[in-house]
């Protein structure tokens, strides 16, 4: 099963938290927020995850790697701007049953 993960970019209410690192890499109980999402996707049946990152994708890629840590195949794609859920589905989701809901 495939999954898309959209990393948040700018959020007015937490702008100061994103100065030092992308919001997806905020530490929560010793791990980056994105690590919890990848763990969730792995336990939900995903095997391939495409991560869309518009905020310092190189830093996100450095934390995520290739996804082996979670038993996944992960690809981090840099984006010029954050896509909405609808835009991401239109652009990346093929019309097949291979995708998690």
Give an account of the 3D structure.
- It is a single chain.
- With 101 residues, the protein is of the alpha/beta class.
- The protein has a single domain (2-9, 19-92), classed as Spore Coat Polysaccharide Biosynthesis Protein SpsA, Chain A (Alpha-Beta Complex), CATH 3.90.550.
- It is 27% helix and 21% strand.
- The protein contains 3 helices and 5 strands.
- The chain has helices at residues 33-43, 57-64, 85-92; strands at residues 2-6, 27-28, 31-32, 48-53, 73-78.
- The strands form 2 sheets. It has a 3-stranded parallel beta sheet, sandwiched between helices.
- A hairpin with a 2-residue loop joins strand 2 and strand 3.
- The longest helix has 11 residues, at 33-43.
- The protein is globular.
- The chain starts with a strand and ends in a 9-residue tail after the last helix.
- 22% of the residues are buried.
- The mean pLDDT is 86.
Question: What is the CATH T-level topology?
Answer: Spore Coat Polysaccharide Biosynthesis Protein SpsA, Chain A
Round the Cα radius of gyration to an integer and report it.
Answer: 13 Å
What's the number of extended β-strand segments?
Answer: 5
> Can you write the helix and strand succession as a string?
EEEHEHEH
Biggest sheet: strand arrangement: 1-4-5
What's the rounded overall pLDDT mean?
86
Can you give the helix content as a percent range? 25-40%
Work out the helix count. 3
What fraction of the residues are assigned to beta strands by DSSP? 15-25%
Rough outline: globular
Fourth-tier CATH superfamily name: Spore Coat Polysaccharide Biosynthesis Protein SpsA, Chain A
The first-level CATH class name? Alpha Beta
| CATH architectural grouping | Alpha-Beta Complex
How is the biggest beta sheet arranged?
3 strands, parallel
Alpha-beta content class: alpha/beta
Terminal-residue CA separation: 10 Å
């Amino acid at each position: 099963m495939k999954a898309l993960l959209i990393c948040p970019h700018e959020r007015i209410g937490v702008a100061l938290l994103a100065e030092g690192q992308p919001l997806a890499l905020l530490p929560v109980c010793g791990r980056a927020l994105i690590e919890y999402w990848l763990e969730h996707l792995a336990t939900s049946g995903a095997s391939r995850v495409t991560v869309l990152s518009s905020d310092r994708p190189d830093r996100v890629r450095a934390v995520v790697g290739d996804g082996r840590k979670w038993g996944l195949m992960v690809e981090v794609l840099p984006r010029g701007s954050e896509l909405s859920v609808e835009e991401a589905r239109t652009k990346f989701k093929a019309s097949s049953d291979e995708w998690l809901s």
